[in-house]
Amino acid sequence: MDVDALIADFELLDDWEDRYRFVIELGRALPPFPDAERTEENKVQGCASQVWLVSHRRDEPSGTILEFEGDSDAHIVRGLVAVLLALLSGRSPKEILATDALAIFRRIGLEGHLTPQRSNGLNSMINRIRADAQAAL
User: Fold this and answer.
1) Residue 41 annotated as catalytic
2) Whose CA is closest to 21, among 110, 115, 111?
3) How many domains would you assign to the chain?
4) pTM of the model
5) Range of the domain at 71
6) Which one is catalytic: 47, 77, 88, 110?
7) Residue 105 belongs to a domain with what CATH number?
């Protein structure tokens, strides 16, 4: 999903309840996550829910691209994973590192409505993706 389209979709929703439902729908639309990838190595530390993230490096003539897969055992967190993947997957490591994902979450009205535990988990997911991008440089 295009970042601008994602932001536009959120901006069409007037209240938090609609945005909350939309996040859950995005999570439901994630492709199935392979059971073989549900390992401790792929588990994101610092999340109250179980969250798994996997990165795949693809070298193209234009440079390296990182693709991410993710999942969670909690509906809203799975939706947050879906938003993060829409924002950051399929991009170069430099693009990922240059993207302020938290600013985008603020812009679409999500960051201020997350519990402290979910905010910490979101930061952990972002840090994990950024670490993978840094390692790919």
Assistant:
1) no
2) 110
3) 1
4) 0.93
5) 3-136
6) 47
7) 3.90.1010.10
